Give the backbone structure.
Amino acid sequence: MNSRADTGNAGERALIEHIRRRLPTPPPSLLIGPGDDAAVLTPARGTLQVLTTDAVVEGVHFDRRFSSLSDIGYKAVAVNVSDIAAMGATPEFVLLSLILPDGFSRGDLDALLDGVLEMAAQAQTTVAGGNISRSPGPLIVDVTATGSVRPRRVLARSGGRAGDSIYVTGTIGGAAAGLGALKSGAVPQEGALAAGPMAGPIRRHQRPEPRLRMGMLLGRNRAASACMDLSDGLADGVRQIAEASGTGAILEASLLPIDPDAAAWFAAQGQDPVLSALTGGDDYELIFTVSKKLRGRFRGVEQHARGLTVTRIGELTEGGGVRLSRAGGFELIPDGFTHF
Amino acid sequence: MNSRADTGNAGERALIEHIRRRLPTPPPSLLIGPGDDAAVLTPARGTLQVLTTDAVVEGVHFDRRFSSLSDIGYKAVAVNVSDIAAMGATPEFVLLSLILPDGFSRGDLDALLDGVLEMAAQAQTTVAGGNISRSPGPLIVDVTATGSVRPRRVLARSGGRAGDSIYVTGTIGGAAAGLGALKSGAVPQEGALAAGPMAGPIRRHQRPEPRLRMGMLLGRNRAASACMDLSDGLADGVRQIAEASGTGAILEASLLPIDPDAAAWFAAQGQDPVLSALTGGDDYELIFTVSKKLRGRFRGVEQHARGLTVTRIGELTEGGGVRLSRAGGFELIPDGFTHF
């Protein structure tokens, strides 16, 4: 939206103009929005800027048989604001880099924008600019999100210490089971939303809910020692926090909040529900650690969680890798979700 | 670098670690760099933030027969910092979203990074984060750049008024002629750099030089009424400024600073050198407008241009579209570069 006319001038200008007309009125902090070389915005005084970028790629992160274009737009924004929330920050602006395949129609663009704008509004963010390019291959929606946070409220991955409790929001395994069900073809698809017991997990894969409020609450109240979002599975998340914090970790299998429909589906496939839920990606829950000292603050945050469950699942340890405690024994946890 | 392990955990972690090790020491304003959910940085007090994103896509913006991976990385950063400079701002941070095809080796990544880091260093920017995804199709390097600028120094496209002179930096037509020469196969290729009379234009296509210093000088001295960078040709640039400013424009054909090697090449192809140079994209020069009132300030800027030529090529008019004055007559200028 701000720069090169990669789709040809007339074509790009028309598309950009079309997108601009669909954007809601921007806040006064956006001084120059889509249409110039770059967006210009006023950072709030005394805040740090938080920046992240993440792409969803056709054939890697989504399959157009399983997700509508609106779902894809929604998810592309969701995974980025989730990263902002995982830093304890408040999402503010979004840049949209669209790489569109041949034959991508105005109607397709509108459907994609429906989802983008829905999630952008839900996250109270503003589309400040972007770019449109042609793709000789897959559809790619690459989003950059910005956020702001006061200096002492940043939630990094590296702040955990041995003895800190590990928590996770919501449930795990849903998105992986939903995608599995879609791939197996076992689920009758009608429009974007399947019916039946797998509807929840499928919806989870298609439209993850970033835990924006919880990230902000943890940051504002300085209630967590470390935090990140779960894009590649709980096992990966715990490992990343443990590595960044220079600790090990133990998870308690019986405490894991596995989505019940997902657990049933994993079991029906002959998979170990615990391992499948631990390594299944795309849930976008937050995991975070709470030290003894922070426990009081964390209780306060929990009371404002508005129905979002938060579950203690284990603790950080002095070294020892990432282990799972189950049936009285310990096992090393395998690595997470692998696309390659 | 900050988010999902789209290439698989172990694979992505290794690649990210590899990239991190290659990054120079960041400035203290980067509080959290690659490796967390998002980058965290301190905006300078009293400045506005400038944000842009732009992708280079294999098969659309580059051909690996004509550009080395290092050239591609260089250009991906160059086109983004060029957008920042065109706002009168100083580039600061870069986020790197890499969509890598199957078989993209560690050596390929290193070559790409060579170019990214070369341009990032040249622009005095810091790679603050990014993301790596797998591509089932083309190689895509999508970059987001940030910059900062003091509030009254922003150079928007919309500030031109009828009577303002239009200027362009450097020369035009070079990149288009260089690409044309490469495509025609008429030029012996040796490594990234061809020899002979087309070496300059070819280099221009492969490694455009963003006019960072001139953008900053024009902003700091408030010496231009409107400004943008030339990604899609001069005709497109003038049209965009005229439209955003609510004016028309007249360009004087005899004043256009057409690259002489490019002009000779266009002529040899039986093309009109003026029209080819006007519509050829990818030069990344700046065009800007200067009102009578700003002329004194602009003279001051010119004296600090360090060898970069700046040429007056026409002026904004009260309406009338964008016209070319040539051989005593006027013609309407055709639309610019079209990828689609």
